């Protein structure tokens, strides 16, 4: 699967990228929401977006909303250090909202197996 990871923290972004590549996925890394919008408009082969919530310029939720307004329907997974339940309730179109914790790798792998 071709995945776009969006995270303004280089260490977290690289760790997520490495985890997904190790699982056999083709992965690109975008530094922030505006970078992600540009990549998505240029590369129609991206099948999934995995984005951090808290980022400058355009946060993960704003990125999700902008993609939907542009008619882009790739599954969208939001990663957060906050409680994910309220975000899912507020944005029912999200594919998933996962907490950044020790179980993230396992939950993300299980989720990707569903796509």
UniProtKB/TrEMBL annotation:
Gene3D superfamilies attached to this UniProt entry: 3.40.50.2300
PROSITE patterns, per database record: RESPONSE_REGULATORY
SMART domains, per the entry: REC (SM00448)
Alphabetical list of InterPro entries matching this protein: Bact_response_regulator (IPR050595), CheY-like_superfamily (IPR011006), Sig_transdc_resp-reg_receiver (IPR001789)
Entry keyword Membrane: no
PANTHER family: CHEMOTAXIS TWO-COMPONENT RESPONSE REGULATOR (PTHR44591:SF25), STRESS RESPONSE REGULATOR PROTEIN 1 (PTHR44591)
Listed name of the protein: Response regulator receiver domain-containing protein
